[in-house]
């Protein structure tokens, strides 16, 4: 898929403008949004993603549009799973509900910057070293197994080295001062816990990116599709956090569903690497044409079907859900 610099520029300007509007709304009204407001924002962002996917299909073909939708659904589902960890972070640092919007928005902006860098490096590396698909595939299969293994539930990195270092180097107060990152107490400037929360959210998403970026590269190598799918998956995540609320703890089978999806994409990556094999110690460095290619429609069907079953099974589960 070849995308002109003009299309890249227009897309970046439009997406940046949307994010700026979102930031302005948060800055002007630091409060907990209502369910209706959150639902409208989330619906709007989903419709934008669908419209963008249809534009891709119209301009570059249905296959490329399908790759965008598959990538977006995968990234969006991983983001929903990550919201549970964000809830844990907010609880551990006792962030007031009315200030959680700002923390989430800054965390999402940091995530976009970090993922953009990851995508640029990943796309350049994969274009030069096809054997990296073997590593990406094996890593995704490992991640899939780790997701369903007992005792490996995701937890918030509230005690990570970076956070401990930040708390030891900077003068941190234990009290919030609105949504401010710094405050002046007893004649000296101090960092509020809000900054530590943002560091926690940023480092957490950095870890999440290690799973999500290889996953979407397993569906498409087009950097444009990888980047836009990530942006649309992260946009509206703040409102989705407030919309789902306690429902997140009921999605007990989401990790299992994501495990199946990541395992499937991991195997797809390995199969694609085998088909384009250039490793000298494997089949004398020749392509292995006998390995079948998985069409994008099948990938899309597996992703949608698995996540639908996981969601329905979670919501239909009797009794009170346990925290994953």
Rg (C-alpha, Å): 21 Å
Average the pLDDT over all residues and give the rounded result: 80
Helix content: 55-70%
Low-confidence region ranges: 152-159
Number of strands: 2
Mind summarizing the main beta sheet?
A: 2 strands, antiparallel
Number of helices: 11
CA-CA gap between termini: 39 Å
Could you explain how this protein is built, in words?
This protein is mainly alpha-helical. The protein has one domain. It contains eleven helices and two strands, in the order ααααααββααααα. It has helices spanning 5-28, 35-60, 62-92, 100-128, 132-148, 161-169, 193-217, 223-234, 237-244, 254-275, 296-316; strands spanning 182-185, 188-191. A two-stranded antiparallel ribbon has the order 1-2. Helix 2 packs antiparallel against helix 3 and helix 5 (132-148) runs antiparallel to helix 10. The longest helix is centred in the first third of the chain and has 31 residues, at 62-92. It is globular and about 70 Å long. It starts with a helix and ends in an 8-residue tail after the last helix.
């Amino acid at each position: 898929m070849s995308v002109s610099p003009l299309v890249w520029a227009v897309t970046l300007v439009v997406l940046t403008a949307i994010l700026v509007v979102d930031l302005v709304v948060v800055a002007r009204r630091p409060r907990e949004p209502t369910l209706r407001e959150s639902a409208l924002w989330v619906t709007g962002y989903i419709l934008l993603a669908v419209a963008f996917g249809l534009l891709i299909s119209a301009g570059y073909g249905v296959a490329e549009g399908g790759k965008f939708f598959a990538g977006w659904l995968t990234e969006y589902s991983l983001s929903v799973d990550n919201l549970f960890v964000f809830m844990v972070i907010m609880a551990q640092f006792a962030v007031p509900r009315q200030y959680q919007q700002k923390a989430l928005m800054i965390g999402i902006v940091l995530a976009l910057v970090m993922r953009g860098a990851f995508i640029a490096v990943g796309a350049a590396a994969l274009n030069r070293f096809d054997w990296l698909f073997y590593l990406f595939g094996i890593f995704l299969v490992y991640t899939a197994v780790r997701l369903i293994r007992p005792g490996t539930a995701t937890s918030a990195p509230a005690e990570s080295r970076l956070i401990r270092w930040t708390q030891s180097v900077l003068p941190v107060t234990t009290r919030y001062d609105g949504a401010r990152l710094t405050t002046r107490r007893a004649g000296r400037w101090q960092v509020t816990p809000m900054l530590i929360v943002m560091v926690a959210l940023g480092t957490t998403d950095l870890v999440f990116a290690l799973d999500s970026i290889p996953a979407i590269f397993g569906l498409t190598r087009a950097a444009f599709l990888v980047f836009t799918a990530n942006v649309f998956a992260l946009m509206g995540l703040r409102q989705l956090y407030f919309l789902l609320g306690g429902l997140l703890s009921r999605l007990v089978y989401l990790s299992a569903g994501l495990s199946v999806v990541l395992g499937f994409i991991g195997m797809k990556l390995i199969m694609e690497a085998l088909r384009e094999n250039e490793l000298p110690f494997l089949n004398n460095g020749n392509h292995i044409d006998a390995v079948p290619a998985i069409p994008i429609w099948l990938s899309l069907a597996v992703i949608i079907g698995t996540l639908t079953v996981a969601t329905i099974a979670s919501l239909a589960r009797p009794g009170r859900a346990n925290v994953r």
